[in-house]
Design a protein that fits this description.
Blueprint lengths: L3 H12 L11 H25 L5 H22 L3
């Protein structure tokens, strides 16, 4: 019996957790929610790298700023808000 697919699935769930979406079921809202969750996960990684001394505060800020601009662009291109 091969346990690799289960292990990889569990690893992906651990590394990239996703929450259920309970808002209005519009395609653009679902896409934005997925992007928002990815943004949150990446910001968490950056914060952890900065806390552990792997990134300087300036580098962390720049990376988060870039992610924020990407999220704003996504929101604008989806026509939300």
């Amino acid at each position: 019996m091969n346990h690799k697919p289960d292990f990889l699935s569990e690893l992906c769930d651990f590394l990239y957790p996703r929450s259920s979406y309970y808002g209005q079921l519009k395609p653009e809202y679902l896409v934005f929610n997925a992007n928002l969750q990815e943004f949150s996960q990446r910001v968490s990684y950056i914060c952890n790298l900065q806390t552990s001394g792997k990134l300087s505060p300036e580098e962390a800020y720049k990376e988060i700023h870039i992610l924020w601009k990407q999220l704003k662009h996504t929101k604008k291109s989806l026509g939300i808000g």
